[in-house]
Amino acid sequence: MSRDQILAALQQNQPELTPLPDTLSFPRDESLDLKEKFITMAEGIGSKVYNIASFDEIAPLIKASFPDAKRILTVVPELVSAEIPAFELHEDPHTYEDVDVAIFKPRIAVAENSALWITEDLMGVRALPFITQHIMMVVDRNTLVPDMHAAYEQIGLADYGFSTFISGPSKTADIEQSLVLGAHGPRSMTIFLYN
Amino acid sequence: MKVGLFIPCYVDQFYPNAGIATYQLLVKLGVDVTYPTGQTCCGQPMANSGFEHLTKDCNSLFIDNFAEFDYVVSPSGSCVLHIKDHLHDEHKEEKAAGIRKKVYELVEFMVDVLKVKNLTAKFPHKVGLHQSCHGQRGLFLTQMTELVAPYYSKPQQLLSQVEGLELIPLSRQDECCGFGGTFCVVEEAVSVKMGKDRVKDHLSHGAEYITGADMSCLMHMEGILKRGNSKVKVLHIAEILNAE
Amino acid sequence: MDEAIKTHPELSAIFNEDEQRVDWHDETLWWIRQKRDKSAHSIPEWEQLRATASQIKNNVLSDLANYLISFEEKAIANGITVHWAADAAEHNRIVHGILKDNGITQMVKSKSMLTEECHLNEYLEKQGLDVIDSDLGERIVQLAKEPPSHIVLPCIHKKKEEIGDLFHVHLGVPAGTSDPQVLTETARQHLRETFLTRKAALTGVNFAIAETGEFVVCTNEGNADMGAHLADVHIACMGMEKIIPERKHLGVFLRLLTRSATGQPITTYSSHFKKPRKGQQMHLVIVDNGRSIQMGREDFRASLKCIRCGACMNTCPVYRRSGGHSYHNAISGPIGAILAPNLDMKKHADLPFASTLCGSCSNVCPVKIDIHQQLYKWRQVIVQEGYADPTKKIGMKIMNFTLSSPALYRTAGKAGRWVLKYAPFTVNNSMNLWFKQRDMPTPPAESFGEWYKKNVKKK
User: Fold this and answer.
1) Fewer CB within 10 Å, N- or C-terminus of chain C?
2) To the nearest whole angstrom, how far is the Cα of B235 from the nearest Cα of chain C?
3) Is the pTM of this model over 0.80?
């Protein structure tokens, strides 16, 4: 069996055991303003960032940014309103093909690269954050962490079926290194920063 | 301290002025320097071509010529790096190890051992400094742009002591010139293109002379300069540091 | 056919016939190197990160069998079906088998250099299956019927006008279209249809976590996710060295990967796949294909630490001026040159020589592979194994003979200078490769040795 063949070959050819690093502790600039850094990185990557005081500000902003949006929904219970219907679960992810705007709330926001950690249970269905034409994220300022090490410290060994870091709108520079926003995932990302 | 002068084979045969300048410079700096006349080559051209196994005789000859000295100094970063990394002799390994520890390229010898701070040299011209790869990334003569680390440059430190010399900036600080030993003929097209691009960088910034710590790189760029009918000349750094 | 494959020098010479194009290719990749520099310099602890990543990967290689066993156990518990492929052929058969078992004849793929290495697309197409590459760069080279030329930037060698022409022929855009925005939008529409209709999706694996049995796929386009989350069958293919011991190690690798590759702080998506979606099959194919042999090569084992960032390609002055296709291997550039001879030493004997050993690659490598030292060592192996050019062999033997004797050396040197001075035409001609585009050095009147003898009193 190939499995046994491969493992045996490795056992024979591997070098002597060398240890892992004792700690993953890296110098950090403690004076870094996390919110400022996060916004700089997010905007640099092409996301639109709004500082909001209340969720009421969101619906009008959606209307202004995406006046032609036909299907809008949110997975965040606190945001559900007349203008923003609640996500309804359909097992077949294809049914979300025509979603224009979807709004989520990630668990963690990473300042060094504007990456937002969102687990499956906050996505509705896995396909939704990718299949929607435009994605929006409500980010609690208190979930900001400085870097990826801090993010994984918080994530720990949490269980999930699927999870992802989303740092901005989908993009590609495959054509002569010209950056184009909106490849196969959402064309835009909007971040509402609150608290 | 007794210094044995190691002159690369192609410098000996084709660019003796670089060797002469090195010798005169060391003498000026008060060094007791001798050129063992039985030396030939460090063996790098063969080793880099995959024929390391043919360098045993070269190694043995090198050890015989240089074992007695306190330091071995050479105006060539790549030859020195080769000796440092690859000088071995199964019959004289202790002597080989000894040489590997005391072999120095000229610039690093002047900065780290002689600690030269006040050269009396004059060279009122615009000069482009080429960072030869083996000297830079192998002997750490100048900080490489790949690393996130503080900048320093030993050749620049010495050139800054030369009166009237203006060091020109370059668009690409430390890109390879494309000589690479037998690479220069095995991969002729790419080698020449790399050399042309290096030369263009220097010319576009107004260099009158191109210098560096390795004559091989300079020989390659000179070949391109002359083919292009350029008035720009190449000079080994020793010749500039020795200029009055 | 092996005989038809040109060598790196031959292919590079062809590439260099269009100097303007070489300049364009070189400048584009140099610009990416500069973006990488800017990004790396924004992280003061960058060198510490590299050292840490290198140490983690060294540990992985020293205990890979156990990590794979642990990973498999956890993955299976997560509901993933794990397959093992000894070589490329078995990998292809396994993938085909999964599709066949599910009655699927059309598949969408996201980027996987491993599948390029195995020539999967070619194999599946021969079996009558339809495979569409969804990464924009990969789709472009697929339409052009070429392999990718760079492991991260598949069509870096193509100009936008050429891409426009391809899209005109295959996707119906008006002739002469070259606006990247328009072309990307066209691909988005065209591939959205693919994502929505394909029942099987294949992705690569950037990192596989032994601790948790999950794997991570990094993209900017979102195509891996679009494919996987809409398909009934998700097949993930991984080189077995892609293992990382613990989830928290991703912090180190995700900080290094994209900065090294393109200068971005992170890809748009870093997706962690742990369990199949309800009702979905998730398959993982672990592939050896020569890796266990490389593991046994003490001098070259470290090449297995590679996380496929492409930084070495972007910095390599030779790669930038010869293009990925000159390396006749799925993985090109400096890392390709130390991986390929292990796969086929005869076919790839030229690759370790396609370098000046400048050392730039080793110093941008996020996991500190000693690439340029391995290139030197591969040269020794290739010559010992008998794959050196016979004329080179003779030349080297003569060189050794001459340089072993001070008297012979001095005579040869003097003779050489004499010939160059008095009979330059014997040297300055088309047989002399140096002379093609460079002048020879001017022969001096005397050598240094002769000057010294004359001018320095013996002590």
Assistant:
1) N
2) 13
3) yes
